[in-house]
Amino acid sequence: MPSINSSDPTDLLRYRPRRLRRTESLRRMVRETTLSVNDLIYPMFVTEGEGQKVEIASMPDCYRYSLDLLLKEIQQVYDLGINAIALFPVIPEELKDNIGAESYNPNGLVQRTVKAIKQAVPDIIIMTDVALDPFTTHGHDGLIDEQGNILNDPTVEVLVKMAVSQAAAGASFVAPSDMMDGRVGAIRQALDAAGYIDVGILAYSAKYASAYYGPFRDALDSAPKFGDKKTYQMDPANAREAIKEIELDIAEGADMVMVKPALAYLDIIHQVRQATHLPVAAYNVSGEYAMIKAAARMGWIDEKKIILETLTSMKRAGADLILTYFAKEVALMLA
Ligand code: PBG
């Protein structure tokens, strides 16, 4: 490339970048990033009961489905080209306890739902969340001691049981989202020992202690009853630490790594992309979703354009995959 700091200002007119933006065909031809339905993973909420489709107050157009209606919805989104869903359960209060034992119940909501999806839509990729917060009375992702400290190794023992029970039900990927140390390696070992060598691990490797998860915690009634998650989720101010977490999860056997949230962490996505050859996922989280929905409902932004521009920015930053509550809307737009 010739130097463009010529001292003669008229000389600069030799360079006309606008030439490549003149028409839509030209723009399409030189486009560097494309968003495809293949990039999308659709997070979905399942609840007990029948005939239930309840909108989440802080996440308009996003619902908790009972299993019967969830299956119909999954068939629809699969027909739209969405290859994968990430499943999150709404656990009834009476099934929660201090240690999240319901999480590894072979007949629990997640396990039953995974089996039913395997039957109804066998080709869709099912990713299950491995974390205790929907299952604990206190809302934390880990076991706690009397002082309220989050205990790492005892938590990992429960996570391992949970992951194996999800694999037994038919999950294609388990996705540990809790940020305990060493859980990816422990889960990998246990899956292999139980014969689930083909069940993959999507590791929430760089997951930040973020206020952007607020609406999700409404969706699951899973907000922590005391304190915050800062002793396990990462400090939003840190970038090098994200690379450390990514390297550890890869060494422990992760098949794919994730950065979460996405929009306020595009620089992290970019750095993680440089640091690994594994697929990199970004989680366009509930708060990012809610902000766009709210502004669109106020009539302040063009929702469809903002969605596409936002998700494209994540791909441009280096994400291969995007978990997003907009997945169905995007699939309809791209169809
Ligand atoms: C729980 C979990 C959370 C999300 C996914 N899994 C919330 C949290 O860590 O408190 C957030 C997803 C979102 O906000 O869309 N381990």
Structural summary, described in words:
The chain is an alpha/beta fold and 335 residues long. The protein has one domain (34-334): Aldolase class I (TIM Barrel). It is built from eleven helices and twelve strands. Strands 1-4-5-8-9-10-11-12 form an eight-stranded parallel β-barrel, surrounded by eight helices. It has a two-stranded antiparallel ribbon with strand order 6-7. α2 (67-79) packs across α3 (109-120), α3 runs parallel beside α4 and α4 (152-169) packs across α5 (183-193). The radius of gyration is 21 Å and the shape is globular. Bound molecules: ligand PBG. The site of ligand PBG has 12 residues, from α6.
Query: How much beta, percentage-wise?
Result: 15-25%
Sheet having the most strands: 8 strands, parallel, barrel
Widest sheet: strand ordering: 1-4-5-8-9-10-11-12
* SSE arrangement, N to C: HEEEHEHEEEHEHEHHEHEHHEH
Q: Would you tell me which CATH topology applies?
A: TIM Barrel
Say how many strands there are: 12
Number of discrete helical segments: 11
Bound ligands, each once: ligand PBG
Indicate how many domains the architecture comprises.
1
Described by the principal axes of the CA atoms, the overall outline is globular
Can you name the CATH architecture? Alpha-Beta Barrel
InterPro entries: ALAD (IPR001731), ALAD_AS (IPR030656), Aldolase_TIM (IPR013785)
Pathway: Porphyrin-containing compound metabolism; protoporphyrin-IX biosynthesis; coproporphyrinogen-III from 5-aminolevulinate: step 1/4
Subunit structure: Homooctamer.
Protein name: Delta-aminolevulinic acid dehydratase
